[in-house]
Amino acid sequence: MTTFDNIANEYFELKKSIWSKHTYKTNLSNYNNHIAPYLGLKSIDTINFIEYQRLANTLLERPLKPKTVKNIFVVLSGIVNYAIKMDIYIGKNYLQYVELPSFDNKQYFSTSLELQKRYIRALMSFNEPVYKDIFVFLLHGRRLGEVLGLEWEYIDLEQNIMYLPSAKNKSRKNLEFELTDLQVDILRTCELEARRIQKTAMLKGYVFPNPETLNKYKDIRKAWSRLLDRNDLPYMRIHDIRHLVGTYLINELDVSIEHVSHLLGHSSIQVTQRYINPKPSNSKNAMDKLFKSVRDKGEIAVDEINRVFSMGEHFQNILKLNDE
After folding, report:
1. Do 204 and 197 touch, CB atoms closer than 8 A?
2. DSSP for 32-79?
3. Which among 110, 274, 131 is positioned nearest to 209, based on CA atoms?
């Protein structure tokens, strides 16, 4: 009998060279912890809709978040689809009938505008060697893994371009970004130090290595905690720096969603739309612009005068009512 575990082992072996290490590790963990205990020893031919739905219900009752359960079922769906492609299973794909609760996938960064500015100022002014440069690159919308794993072969200081090949980023696309002046200044300084250590102009290895080991940093959470403590800032995750950047650029600076999507290296604009926080004033401002666009200056001036007179009459009527 071919068990679900047998199929899953083949599936993960196939995906090992296709997925990033992080994706592979996460998906394998989801399978081992949440799928295998329920389905691992069963034959895929014996699993029907009820069992898949019961698995979903069990995970939700633990409780796991709906988004987490959805991610688990993405892994489960991948294994079942693999079995269908390989003719290991020729029955109905019952997963398409499983019901999962809807959830809000929006990234809410609900801190005040002033607090957002404090985070940004703190990131720009942190003064510990190496860490300060890492935080500045994180402030440019990069993921922590992208910054800690950045290597000299992906930096072009003649063209001021940083490359992130598909194997090195979550979007699985080849990305390139023009460096800001601040990033160039940081990299020029790092370049001098790297040449001093490596004694060559053909630099290799990590751009921001641990000075003690000259290898990649494994964890910078202690430095992050120091930054928050010194600036008396509420706790947030390092990954939330990306949410901060996306939220601030779109909602406070009105940077186009297309530009922010590229900056953050998202796979699609739909992902970036999670950062939009509609304001109550948006609808009024939009209609004001529409009305203004079809009126000339003279009409607008007359309307404004009429509005002032109308407001004056309104207040006079209120005063009369009060006197009565």
Report:
1. no
2. IIIIHHHHTTSBGGG--HHHHHHHHHHHHHTT--HHHHHHHHHHHHHH
3. 131
- The helix/strand/coil state of 141 is coil
Cβ neighbours for 164, distance < 8 A, ≥ 6 positions apart: 146, 154, 174, 175, 176, 177, 265
- pLDDT at site 282: 61
At residue 298, φ and ψ (nearest 5 deg) are: -65, -45
Residue 123 has a pLDDT of 95
User: Distance between CA atoms of 190 and 187, rounded to whole angstroms?
Assistant: 5
Give this prediction's pTM.
Answer: 0.63
Say how many C-beta atoms besides its own lie within 10 A of residue 322's C-beta. 7
Longest CA pairwise span in the chain (Å): 92
155-156, strands of its sheet edge to edge? 155-156, 161-164, 175-178
